[in-house]
Design goal:
The protein is of the alpha+beta class and 557 residues long. The chain has 17 helices and 22 strands. A six-stranded mixed beta sheet has the order 8-9-10-1-11-18, covered by helices on one side. The chain has a six-stranded mixed beta sheet with strand order 13-17-12-16-14-15. It has a four-stranded antiparallel beta sheet with strand order 4-5-7-6, with helices on one face. The chain is globular and about 70 Å long. The N terminus is likely disordered.
Length: 557
């Protein structure tokens, strides 16, 4: 009820302000940008950011070695952040050394940002005891696997040569390291003394709260954080609003007088805030607005780095048989499944979605790779006939009773029922559907205790390798237990390739091989859209789904 009352108050307040301004002739326009970036942030700790709101807010408070900046044409690119200069050296042993020379930047309390602040933050991120979902971002750094296996944190090849020089050694050649890894808010620097002090204060406060109260986090009050980004937190009301003010210590230019976040529980509430005038920006658009955007040639949907896919357990019968997996994949009507998913969904033509670069100056990876999965209506019946033939010659027997796991959010239950019906009617394969919580799903995946499972396969950086690398044999992320020596070889070549064209060709070959073996069954891609009210310009969207507001300015009328 509190959320509903707050929403009504915000909309009413905006309407009253609009009416007052309309009756007063020419007025001075505030350059504080009001936005809705989704629900409340789940954390202000860079190591644990997971949602678009998390990354948007934490990326506003902190800045890493590189940052994403928007251009006049709306495109974004990686530019120097805390690093003012970067040198790269390819070593004889196949490793690559990046040397970052830091600019004279300061924390919000006036102390200098040092290379040791990055060493502490990156070691903390890689530490398995931290349990960070973003730790795999550092998997390309030499020593990462050893640290994850229990070695000393100093084994991670990240070192401070002096206060202003940071050296990072990668295990191979990764051209996307600067643009996709070093720009992530998860890799922002942290001050060890600040984290320790705030942890102790949070523990003392929790002790005073009593045993029944939820334990406080060191970052619970963002106004007490010491940050190095474009903004500092000025006020925070959990679940309702957050106010950011331009940092007096930031080295760069901030084009506005601050950002005021209003949080919304869902897309409909976010749209009500925008249409009611309470905010000037929202990215969480409801399905009807997304459908309208998709049909509007001037405002097409922007692809997201995610694909909804069915995972097959390759460690047990019958899904250990490639013919069974292939039959189940060919039997699916992706167009009808995408229609159930809503106006932002598009039937998947492969595992890697649109929006992933094909290399320097190249086409979109998906466009270049073509359709690996047919979605055309005229191909559906021939595909299903082939599916029946494959199943007839496979290890499948009528005694099998397969189970399909899914998280019951949005249209997931409808999709589960539709898939079960299609497999039953086309192949006479019985599949029971079972809704589980997200933690239950991922526990089942890690333990290998599932037959089929539906997941939104999202990645931490925008390169095709991010979608493909987890399926390398015994990679630690290979929850489908896929084993193919040729596939593993292709991924090893990709890691060390010095020729971008050869690397790209191997990426396409690897995706084709993975889908030929039907290790997974991609269902649909998704797109997104947002609204920035007329009178503002300079918005920058990161391809991974979050936003930078430091360049947004009120346009003079």
């Amino acid at each position: 009820m509190k959320r509903t009352k707050r929403l009504a108050a915000l909309v009413l307040s905006a309407a009253l302000c609009a009416g007052m301004l309309a009756g007063c002739g020419k007025t001075e326009r505030s350059s504080v940008l009001s936005v809705c970036a989704g629900d409340d942030v789940t954390t202000f700790d860079p190591a644990y950011v997971s949602t678009a709101a998390d990354n948007t807010v934490v990326g506003s408070l902190y800045e890493g070695l590189m940052r994403v900046s928007g251009g006049a044409d709306g495109a974004s690119s990686a530019v120097e952040g805390m690093a003012k200069k970067v040198t790269v050296e390819e070593n004889f042993d196949g490793t690559t050394t990046y040397t970052f020379h830091l600019r004279s930047a300061r924390w919000s309390d006036g102390r200098s940002v040092t290379a040791q602040d990055f060493v502490y933050a990156w070691q903390r991120l890689a530490n398995p005891l931290t349990l960070s979902p973003n730790a795999p971002l550092l998997s390309v750094v030499q020593g990462y696997d050893a640290v994850r296996a229990g070695a000393e944190l100093s084994e991670l090849a990240v070192s401070a040569k002096n206060d202003s020089t940071l050296e990072v050694v990668l295990s191979g050649k990764y051209d996307w390291f600067l643009s996709e890894i070093c720009t992530s808010p998860a890799l922002s620097p942290l001050r060890q003394d600040v984290v320790q002090t705030l942890k102790e204060a949070a523990q003392d406060a929790s002790a005073q709260d009593g045993p029944d109260a939820a334990p406080r986090k060191w970052w619970s009050d963002p106004t007490k954080l010491v940050t190095n980004g474009a903004y500092t937190a000025a006020a925070y009301e959990p679940g309702e609003s957050l106010e950011l003010a331009p940092s007096e210590r930031y080295y760069g230019h901030v084009a506005n007088d601050g950002v005021r976040f209003a949080f919304a529980a869902d897309a409909d509430e976010a749209w009500a805030l925008y249409s009611g005038g309470a905010v000037d920006f929202t990215y969480a658009l409801p399905d009807d607005q997304l459908a309208q955007q998709a049909q509007d040639g001037q405002h097409p949907l922007t692809p997201e780095l995610s694909v909804c896919t069915v995972l097959f357990n390759g460690a047990q019968l019958p899904t250990s048989d490639p013919s069974v997996r292939r039959a189940l994949t060919l039997a699916v009507d992706r167009q009808s499944i995408a229609a159930l998913a809503g106006g932002a969904a598009q039937a998947a033509q492969g595992l890697v979605p649109f929006g992933v670069s094909g290399g320097d100056g190249g086409e979109d990876f998906r466009t270049e790779g073509g359709d690996l999965l047919s979605t055309a209506a005229e191909d559906l019946e021939p595909n299903r006939a082939q599916a029946r033939e494959l199943l007839a010659g496979s290890d499948y027997e009528d005694r099998y009773d397969l189970e399909y796991l899914y998280v019951d959010e949005g249209s997931a239950a409808q999709i589960a029922a539709a898939l079960a019906e299609q497999w039953q009617s086309v192949l006479n394969v019985r599949v029971r559907t079972r809704a589980v919580t997200e933690p239950e799903l991922y526990t089942a995946l890690r333990a290998g205790e599932y037959d089929l499972a539906c997941v939104d396969w999202s990645v931490l950086f925008g390169d095709a390798e991010a979608f493909l690398a987890p399926f390398v044999s015994r990679s630690g992320q290979d929850v489908v237990v896929y084993e193919n020596g040729a596939y593993d070889t292709l991924l090893r070549i990709i890691d060390s390739a010095s020729d971008p064209a050869a690397r790209l060709a191997c990426l396409h070959d690897a995706e084709a091989l993975l889908l030929e073996d039907a290790a997974v069954c991609p269902l649909y891609f998704t797109g997104t859209a947002w609204k920035l009210r007329e009178g503002w310009s300079g918005l920058c969207r990161d391809a991974r789904g979050w936003f930078s507001f430091m360049g947004v300015a009120a346009v003079s009328s």
